[in-house]
Amino acid sequence: MEKRWTYNVIPPTEEVSDFGKKLNINSYLTTVLLQRGITDFESAKNFFRPSLDHLHDPFLMKDMEKAVTRLKSAIDGGEKILIYGDYDVDGTTAVSVVYSYLKSFYPACDFYIPDRYAEGYGVSQAGVVWAAENGFTLIIALDLGIKASDMVTLANLKGIDFIICDHHLPGGEIPNAVAVLDPKRSDCDYPFKELSGCGLGFKLLQAFAKKYRNEQEIFEYLDLVAVSIAADIVPVDGENRALAFFGLQKLNQNPSPGLLALKEIAAIKNDLDISGVVFTLGPRINAAGRVAHAKGAVELLISKTEEEASALAEKINIKNDLRREFDLSITEEAVAMIEGDDNLRSAKSTVLFKNNWHKGVIGIVAARCVEKYYRPTVILTESNNKVTGSARSVKDFDLYKALHDCSDLLEKFGGHKYAAGLTLDRSNVVAFQKRFEEVVSASITEEMQTPLIEIDVAIPLDAITSKFIAVLKQMAPFGPENQRPVFEARNLYVSNSLSSFKDKHVRFLVGQRGSDSVFQVVGFDLVERYERLAYGDDFKMAFTIEENTYNGITSIQLRAKDIKFD
Fold this sequence. Notes:
Elements: E1 4-7, H1 13-23, H2 27-35, H3 41-48, H4 64-76, E2 80-85, H5 89-103, E3 109-112, H6 125-133, E4 136-142, H7 149-157, E5 161-165, E6 179-181, H8 197-212, H9 222-231, H10 238-253, H11 257-265, H12 274-291, H13 295-301, H14 306-339, H15 342-346, E7 350-353, H16 362-373, E8 377-383, E9 386-392, H17 399-404, E10 412-415, E11 419-424, H18 429-443, E12 452-455, E13 457-458, H19 466-474, E14 487-501, E15 505-512, E16 518-523, H20 530-535, E17 539-550, E18 553-565
Helix pairs in contact: 1-2, 4-8, 5-8, 5-9, 5-13, 8-9, 9-10, 9-12, 11-14, 12-14, 13-14, 14-16
C-alpha cells in the first residue's frame, strides 16, 4: 500500500542554531525538540531530566480532599472497602495498585472486576448488589464510573458511598458520588488532563499518603503505572512522562513479582520501552479478560511471591495463546470475506458480522483489518441475544461522528474518534452495514484513505554518531505526543547483504552517495520493495533509529518505515 509522506514544519535556522548552541546538540535533534514545543533551557532540562518532583500536587484535583477524607474515615471506622475496576490493562493495573497499597496496612478491603460478557463495561448492577450483600460501604471505582450516575444512586440507596477515579470524558451529569476525580471535568483545574485510569488511582494514593502516611511508599507501584500508560495509549508527556520514565526504570530493574513473571514467560531479555510493553506485557494482561475473567490478571499483579506469580503467569500465558488463536483465525475469516466479495473489496468501509466470533478479540480483528485495508472498520458478533461490535478508524476520520449518524439503528454506542463500541438488534445489521458505508463514503477524503508517515527532519547518515544516539536515547520514553523521531535520508543505495525474511520483510546494509557511513536496515512489511532494491536503484527512506542487541552485541539499526525510489 502506497504511503503518504508529510513533513513537520522546520523552525527558523537562527532559532535552531541559537538553541542548539545552548544545549550543545546538533541542528537535527534541536529541530526535533523545537517541533515538540521544547523551546528554552528550562523546558529542555525538565524533558531530558524527568523527576518525581515534577508530579503535580494531587490536592489540585477537584474533590481530592473529599476523597482522602472519606477513605480515612472508612479505615478509621473499620468499614469494608471495595476496589472496583475495568477489565482491560488500565483497569486491572489500577485495581492492583490501589488494592495492594491499602491491603498492605488495612485488611478489610477486596476487589471486583465486572465480567466482560455477563456484565459488560462500567459499574454494573450486579457489582453494586454484590457489594451490598457482602457488607461493603465504600467503593473506589477505577477507570470507569464517570457515566454511572444510576449505579451510584442505587449504591447510595443501599448505604454504599462511591469515590470515582475516571479519566474518560464526563457526560452531561456528574454522578452524585462522595468524590469524582476526573481531570477532564470542566470544573477541575488540575494542570494535567491525560492521566491513565491507573494514574488517577495513583494520584488518590499519593494524596492519601501525603496527608496521612509516607508519600515515598507509593512509588514502588510505578512499574504498574507505566504499564497502564503504555497499554492505554495515553500521551507520554507532562506528568505521564515522569511516571513512565521512573515506572519503566522499576519495571526493568526491580519489577513486582507479577510483572517479573510475565517478563520471564514472555522471554524478555532486554529492557522494555513503551512499545515493548504494548506488544508483550499488555496483550498477556488483557488476555485474562478477553477469554476468561480479568480477576486472573489482578491476582497475578498483586502476587507477593515469585512462586505464586510464576504459576499465575503460566495460566495467563495459556489464555494469551488462546486469545491469539481466536484473533488469527477470525482475522483470516474476515480477510476472506472481504477478498471474496467485490462490493466489500471496493467499499470505503468494512462492516463484517458473524454470530460466533469471539467477543473478546473483535477489537483486535478490527485493528488488523484497518492495518491491511486502511479504512474505517466495524467487526460485529452476537452476545446475549444482541449484536455487539468494535470499531476502529484511520487518521483524521471521526468514527464517533459516523456512528452518531447511524444512531437510529443502534441501541447504544460509545467511544471516541478512533475507537468505539456499539450494540444493535440483529434485524438492523444489514441496514447498519449499508448506512455506515454511505456515511463513510460521503465524508472520507482520498488523503484519509492513504496511510501517513510524518517526517520530522531530513538528515545525512553521517549525522548518526554515538553522541547523536546518546541524546536520542535521552528523549525516551517514546509514545503518543512524544513519538520516536522519524528521519528522512536521500541518495541512498543498498551497500550489501540484501535479504528477505518471512516472505514479508527486508534487511540490508545501506549507504549514502558521498558518505562513508553504512548502517543495518530492517524494513517490516516492505518485501514489495525487494526487486528494485536488488536492481540497484537509488532511493530515499523514512526511518527511525534504534539500538539492536543480538547475542550480547548492541549495534545501531535503522528501521525503515517506507522506501521511495528516485
